[in-house]
Specification:
By secondary structure, this protein is an alpha/beta fold. 44% of the residues lie in helices and 13% in strands. It is built from 18 helices and 13 strands. It has helices at residues 3-24, 29-59, 72-76, 79-86, 96-101, 109-122, 130-133, 151-167, 180-196, 198-201, 207-217, 252-261, 277-289, 356-365, 387-397, 453-465, 478-483, 505-537, and strands at residues 225-226, 232-233, 240-245, 266-274, 297-301, 316-321, 367-377, 401-406, 420-425, 432-437, 443-445, 448-450, 473-477. A hairpin with a 2-residue loop joins strand 11 and strand 12. The termini are far apart. The mean pLDDT is 88.
């Protein structure tokens, strides 16, 4: 990455941090996130729309055209076309840039913003983009007492926030050397997750873990080849049709595919589902801020296990997920679930108290025949008995488990637990499972462990080429796993390195006897000296 990019990024992060600290006041940090992100989103879609319309007008010959300076009346004539192409419409008077210019004179700024947010959302009503625009501003309550006890206080804080967002050096939308809006969003999410404990961190997967999960899902085992030097090469996929996350949180895992492949190389789009309403809104905002247009993503709201919304979009080439660990679900209390095509093949449902394998079975069911899924798991699911053991038996007997990777502890916000990654594939040729003990693969930064680029590369290369390396990785015949009663815990197959020094007892005894002789000799010398001294004193 160039120095210019790094400087831009550092400056951006510093400014965002300052905004959060200066403006938060009485608003709790986690709640205030909604306002900062919401206003950032408002600025983004305003600039995105202006860039789009101005570019089209200038291309048709009107080089002096400026949508920002157009009258609302003139702008209305293009509403239908703009909505069909961009998914939303904003009148010139309601653009972020024009509202912030008049903010000091607007005594009813909160009312102005409330109307604008409703107008933007309703511009998509009855169109294809309605589901992706609906409710996006719901969490930005401009009348909340959290902003202040009086209208004047509320508006002063909103004014400060708008000006601070306006001052962010995001540059012209099309000229950014960094993905400025998306980068600002990711930084905000990381910042708030790190400071919010479990409430904030549970839906945000650290970027380094996202990187590893995504790259695992992109290893192209089906197209390995031997190069001119006789070396086996396993390439990465350069494009996929569809990517999916059944517990997508803020959408950061899905967007890693756009960053790694380029958004146009995810040909049919990004699909996810989220059960938390606020986080669902954040995920959709995140898509827009990364310039994923409305027709290229489908983020659904609801319980994936009970009411999955993407039946018509499956199967998926790449699935990545960090589902909630060991949450409760209906399980066998719902007699319909055992006949659900996602869960039925295993012949048993995940326990009601632990839905982990319900997510695994759902993911496997929706994975394409040549796709790969990488899932972060609580390690207990690798060795617990009962129904979970029966589901493991189904997965292993049908040769769906590609790799199990033990990760370091303390990687995730709000938790210090260790986790593991389960990699699933349906097109395996070898009846083997690859185990990786990456528990020591981390660097300590501030108060958390992180995966460095070197750590990620080492793990990926091991999975890619199924290496055997003492104390790190082992490619194990399924028969060995069956023999160990379908236990998938990494430490069952990889011996932990013993750093204790090996002691040679014979040499140690010889050394001790030499020390004893020296002590005896020394004692005799001391006794002799003492005797001489006593003789002299007489």
């Amino acid at each position: 990455m160039s120095n210019k990019k790094e400087q831009e990024r550092a400056e951006l992060h510093k400014t965002i941090w300052q905004i959060a600290n200066d403006l938060r006041g009485s608003v709790d940090g986690w709640d205030f996130k909604q306002y900062v992100l919401g206003m950032l989103f408002y600025r983004f879609i305003s600039e995105n729309l202006v860039t789009y319309i101005d570019k089209n007008q200038k291309a048709s010959g009107d080089v002096q055209f400026s949508y920002e300076k157009l009258s609302d009346e003139d702008a209305e004539t293009a509403r239908e076309q703009v909505v069909s192409e961009k998914g939303f419409f904003i009148l010139p008077s309601e653009l972020f840039s024009n509202v912030v210019k008049k903010a000091d004179q607007d005594e009813n700024l909160n009312v102005t913003l409330e109307k604008i947010f409703k107008d933007i959302e309703s511009s998509a009503s009855g169109t294809e983009s309605e589901k992706n625009m609906k409710g996006l501003f719901d969490d930005i309550d401009v009348n909340s007492n959290k902003l202040g006890g009086t209208v004047v206080e509320k508006n002063n804080r909103l004014r400060k926030l708008m000006k601070a967002i306006d001052d962010l050096k995001l540059g012209k939308y099309e000229d950014n050397t960094i993905d400025a809006f998306g980068d600002a969003y990711e930084f905000l999410m990381t910042m708030y997750a790190a400071n919010a404990g479990k409430s904030g961190g549970e839906f945000f997967t650290p970027q380094e873990v996202s990187e590893l999960l995504t790259r695992l899902a992109l290893i192209d085992f089906g197209n390995q080849y031997t190069d001119k030097d006789g070396k086996v090469v396993v390439p990465d996929k350069t494009h996929v049709e569809k990517v999916y996350d059944p517990a997508c949180g803020s959408g950061s895992l899905l967007l890693k595919f756009a960053k790694i492949l380029g958004k146009d190389n995810v040909e049919l789009g990004f699909f996810g589902q989220e059960i938390n309403l606020t986080t669902y809104n954040l995920a959709r905002i995140n898509m827009f801020l990364h310039d994923i247009n409305f027709e290229k993503f489908s983020i659904g709201y609801g319980d994936t296990l009970q009411s999955p919304i993407h039946w018509d979009d499956k199967p998926f080439d790449a699935i990545v997920s960090n589902p909630p660990y060991s949450i409760k679900w209906e399980g066998d209390a719902n007699p319909l679930l055992i006949n659900d095509e996602r869960f039925a093949p295993a012949g048993v449902l995940a326990p009601k108290s632990k839905a982990d394998y319900a997510f695994v079975m759902h993911i496997l069911s929706w994975l394409s025949s040549n796709g790969t899924a990488s899932i972060v798991e609580f390690p207990g699911i690798l060795y617990r008995g009962g129904a979970e053991q029966k589901i493991r038996k189904y997965l292993i007997d049908n040769n769906y488990v590609d790799s199990i990777i033990q990760l370091p502890s303390d990687l995730f916000f709000g938790s210090t637990i260790s986790t593991a990654i389960m990699v699933l594939r349906k097109n395996k040729k070898d009846n083997k499972i690859h185990f990786v003990d990456a528990s020591k693969e981390f660097v300590r930064i501030d108060i958390k462990n992180k995966l460095s680029p070197a750590n990620i590369t080492k793990i990926l290369d091991s999975v890619r080429y199924k290496t055997n390396s003492d104390h790190f990785s082992k490619y194990v015949d399924v028969s060995d796993v069956v023999e160990k009663e379908y236990n998938l815990a990494v430490n069952t197959y990889i011996e932990t390195e013993n750093n204790d020094e090996i002691v040679d007892i014979t040499k140690l005894n010889l050394k001790i006897s030499e020390i004893v002789k020296k002590v005896d000799s020394l004692r005799k010398s001391i006794d002799s000296i003492v005797a001489d001294l006593e003789g002299d004193s007489e």
